[in-house]
Specification:
Elements lengths: L5 H9 L3 H6 L4 H12 L3 H8 L3 H8 L7 H11 L4 H4 L26 E4 L10 E7 L6 E2 L5 E10 L2 E5 L2 E5 L4 E4 L5 E5 L5 E9 L7
Antiparallel strand pairs: 1-2, 2-9, 3-8, 4-7, 4-9, 5-6, 5-8
């Protein structure tokens, strides 16, 4: 093998150690940080409880160092948990990122809300999340809540009218409506301005998912 060039040396020093790469899915640092925050402990207090240095604990929480089993066992003793908390295998994981969500639905009928799904890449999602744009000229129309166990509306911009069970509510920007109901629901923009609403729905058990 020939001599290693400076650029190759730089690449090698930047490579993630195999152990750190293997343990990354277990999110040990994040779990350590979460445990300490839940217990409302400072690093100094945890250091006093475990006998470990604050510098070491900080490196462990920020994944700059891989903990030994002995170190984890010491921390587990303080929190009253087992090592399995850090090494349990995840049963499910999915991530969907929607970038550059459009702020206006152009070229559509004023009476037809624009539904923009925010988790389209997740197959059979537990929650259906959308941003809905209601034009100022839209009329109060039935909301598609069929098959949902629970539904949430959060008004991002404008004002929204919500009809349910003979009651009419007006929601301002920042208002949230959450309901679990089989009653018919209708909604629309209130006033002379368009309205943007974040909607989250949880399907009923055994109901087909989007």
């Amino acid at each position: 093998m020939g001599p290693v060039s400076p650029s190759e040396k730089h690449t090698m020093t930047k490579a993630i150690p195999h152990t750190q790469w293997f343990l990354a899915p277990y999110c040990i640092g994040m779990k350590l940080r979460g445990l300490r925050n839940d217990k409302q402990l400072t690093l100094a207090r945890l250091a006093a409880e475990t006998g470990l240095s604050t510098a070491l604990l900080s490196k462990l929480e920020t994944d700059r160092m891989v903990p030994t089993l002995s170190t984890l066992a010491t921390i587990c003793r303080v929190y009253g948990i087992g090592l399995g908390y850090f090494f349990s295998e995840p049963t499910a994981h999915s991530l969907s990122i929607t970038r550059g969500v459009p702020t206006q639905g152009r070229g559509r009928s004023a009476d037809v809300p624009a539904h923009i799904p925010l988790n389209p890449a997740v197959p059979n999602p537990t929650l259906t999340v959308s941003m809905v744009e209601l034009s100022a000229a839209s009329s109060i129309a039935p909301a598609n809540t069929a098959g949902s166990l629970a539904h949430l509306f959060y008004v991002l911009d404008g004002r929204m009218t919500l009809d349910m069970g003979g009651l009419r509510e007006h929601l301002e920007a920042g208002d949230c409506a959450y309901f679990e109901s089989d009653l018919p629901v209708a909604w629309g923009a209130a006033g002379k301005l368009p309205c943007r609403v974040l909607t989250v729905a949880a399907p009923k058990p055994n109901a087909p998912r989007a």
